Write a sequence for this structure.
């Protein structure tokens, strides 16, 4: 079943060519050209390797901007991410996806490999640094005499989506379950923990509060050490998962209030279970079975309504405590001083798209994959196809958005819907000019062209 929502904002698609590596530089790569129009750009590529005729393809004018191979990460940040920072500082959500085959530069673009070079800093860390610069300006603004200045920071969530589960990279790679709750929202939660006095806690994805840029950098560096790798059609150490990095503007009061909600939920579980058990026990004792097989009231044990009412009253008390904790979270957003509170950047480093088409390379020496990795490939195929369909459905303002089509789109549902409130979403296609990767690059461009055309409607 799909969700009924209306889209209100466009989806921008950018393209980024990576340079040839030292091993690849013996050739010039296949021919590629950018054709700029008044508003958007198109790309044409051409190759004649391993074929008797030249293979040519040209996109529509579906790309907001095409970055050449000489562009540094700082150039990508300035063109794609920097313009959205004011939106996040007004509490909006902005989503950014990196799409391309393994080895095309997705992780380099989103995360970066050199944390000390500001020009090559990944987009997520560049965004964190810019957010703290903006938060410093907020801290210097005067506040009402009746209000206490609150500490502003950035909470980091870092997890990967693998198969039908998520894995919390800031919590020892704990397996988390993707479920839709009775409220219609998607919840990503870890395994159930049994605490003292029968309390049961199910923690959400860990949000690590950071109060300076260096703490964000360390959190990302630590979390990414646990990211899963495996063989792909491109190289043996390619990421086979979708990595999601969330940066949310928070205060200490908000983080404490959310922790209080988790604690109150833990207390409610055993009390609610006890109320249910009391009701079932009393109802069971109040009836007996006759020799004829009929159930009749038990004259020796009528229902003790007082015990049931007492258990329900205790349950209601703990439910009220939970509501009060939830109200405290809502109250954190009431201050006009903190319009930025809850603003989010969502960066998604998608798994390699070579699985989207089996014929991803003109090379005949592809590593043999295990049965498990083949299953992973099929799931990646499903995720990437579902993501495209969600984007297209939203852009065309369809009444039913197929968020439930894959675990990835279920997780992203709340971010996509939050983005509709003054936010923005974009995708960066990472492209390889290497001759043997012509087909993989062509597939990436076709995917991006479909998404870009839909986003322009």
């Amino acid at each position: 079943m799909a969700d009924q929502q209306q889209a209100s904002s466009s989806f921008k698609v950018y393209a980024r060519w990576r340079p040839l590596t030292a091993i690849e530089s013996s050739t010039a790569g296949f021919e590629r050209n950018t054709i700029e129009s008044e508003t958007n750009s198109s790309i044409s590529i051409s190759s004649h390797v391993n074929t008797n005729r030249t293979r040519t393809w040209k996109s529509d004018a579906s790309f907001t901007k095409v970055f050449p191979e000489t562009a540094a990460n700082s150039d990508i940040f300035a063109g794609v991410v920097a313009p959205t920072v004011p939106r996040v500082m007004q509490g909006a959500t902005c989503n950014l996806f990196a799409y391309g085959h393994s080895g095309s530069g997705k992780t380099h673009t989103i995360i970066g490999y050199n944390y000390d070079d500001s020009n090559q800093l990944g987009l997520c860390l560049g965004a964190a640094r810019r957010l703290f610069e903006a938060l410093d300006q907020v801290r210097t603004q005067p506040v009402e005499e009746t209000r206490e200045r609150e500490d502003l920071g950035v909470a980091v969530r870092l997890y990967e989506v693998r198969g039908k589960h998520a894995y919390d990279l800031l919590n020892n790679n704990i397996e988390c379950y993707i479920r839709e709750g009775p409220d219609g929202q998607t919840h990503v939660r870890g395994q159930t923990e049994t605490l003292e006095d029968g309390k049961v806690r199910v923690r959400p994805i860990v949000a690590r509060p950071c109060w300076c840029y260096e703490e964000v950098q360390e959190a990302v560096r630590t979390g990414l050490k646990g990211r899963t790798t495996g063989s792909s059609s491109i190289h043996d150490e390619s990421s086979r998962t979708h990595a999601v990095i969330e940066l949310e503007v928070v205060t200490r009061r908000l983080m404490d209030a959310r922790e209080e909600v988790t604690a109150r939920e833990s207390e409610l579980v055993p009390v609610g279970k006890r109320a249910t058990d009391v009701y079932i026990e009393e109802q069971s004792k109040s009836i007996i079975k006759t020799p004829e097989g009929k159930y009749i009231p038990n004259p020796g044990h009528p229902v003790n309504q007082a015990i049931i009412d007492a258990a329900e009253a205790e349950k209601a008390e703990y439910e009220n405590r939970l509501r009060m904790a939830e109200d405290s979270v809502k109250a954190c957003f009431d201050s006009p001083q903190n319009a930025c509170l809850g603003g989010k950047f969502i960066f998604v480093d998608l798994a390699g798209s070579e699985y989207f088409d089996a014929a991803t390379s003109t090379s005949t020496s592809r590593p043999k994959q295990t049965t498990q990795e083949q299953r992973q490939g099929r799931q990646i195929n499903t995720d990437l196809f579902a993501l495209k369909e969600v984007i297209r459905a939203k852009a065309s303002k369809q009444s039913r958005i197929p968020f439930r089509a894959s675990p990835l789109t279920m997780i992203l549902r709340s971010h996509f819907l939050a983005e509709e409130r003054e936010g923005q979403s974009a995708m960066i296609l990472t492209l390889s000019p290497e001759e043997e990767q012509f087909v993989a690059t062509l597939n990436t461009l076709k995917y991006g062209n479909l998404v870009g055309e839909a986003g322009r409607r």
The longest strand covers residues 152-162. Residues 12-250+337-455 form a domain with the Kinesin fold (CATH 3.40.850.10).
